[in-house]
Specification:
Largest sheet: 5 strands, antiparallel
Radius of gyration: 14 Å
Helix content: 25-40%
Order of helices and strands: HEHEHHEEE
Strand content: 25-35%
Strand order of the largest sheet: 1-5-4-3-2
């Protein structure tokens, strides 16, 4: 098992607020998106800090339980990805064409 598989990733930034000088930079946002691989929600969930992800989902307006409304896990418009940002592994959610990036730093 790789060290990166044991670490918990934390929210870093969305593409909307990305530093402008890093969007097209070598290994930056565009390269990260182009190199991304789709992963399952289960894999994503295992890599991200649970409490932080629950808070993140709440801030996006998702219900905590399906009986109270739409949950992120039931939103078929949300996809989960793994990639590299400047050579380091990252995970991100694509929600409404916005990438929300989680890093290990």
């Amino acid at each position: 098992m790789l060290i990166e598989d044991k670490m918990k990733y934390h929210y870093y930034c969305s593409c909307v607020n990305w530093p402008k000088d890093d969007i097209s930079a070598l290994g930056g946002l565009k390269d990260m998106i182009d190199a991304a691989h789709t992963i399952s929600r289960k894999t994503f969930y295992q890599r991200i800090d649970y409490d932080e992800l629950a808070d993140f989902e709440r801030r996006l307006g998702y219900a905590r339980h399906w009986k109270r409304g739409l949950t992120m896990s039931h939103d078929y418009h949300v996809t989960y990805h793994k990639s590299r940002l400047h050579g380091k592994p990252v995970y991100f959610i694509k929600h409404s064409a916005i990438e929300y990036v989680f890093t290990g730093e």
